[in-house]
Design a protein that fits this description.
mainly alpha, 48 residues, 1 helix
C-alpha cells in the first residue's frame, strides 16, 4: 500500500512540473518553427 501511495504521489508531482504559461518569443526574434524542413531554395526566408 505504501508503494502504491508513493508511486501515486511521485506521478502527480511529475505531472504538475512543467511550463504552464504560454511561451512567446522576445520582440525582434524570427520564429523559425514555420520554416520548411529540410531547407529549400524556393522558400523566401525573412531577413534577420
Amino acid at each position: 500500500m505504501l508503494k502504491l501511495l508513493s508511486i501515486l504521489v511521485i506521478s502527480l508531482f511529475l505531472l504538475s512540473c512543467g511550463n504552464k504559461k504560454p511561451n512567446e518569443l522576445p520582440e525582434g526574434v524570427i520564429d523559425k518553427s514555420q520554416f520548411p524542413f529540410p531547407p529549400n531554395e524556393e522558400y523566401e526566408y525573412p531577413e534577420e
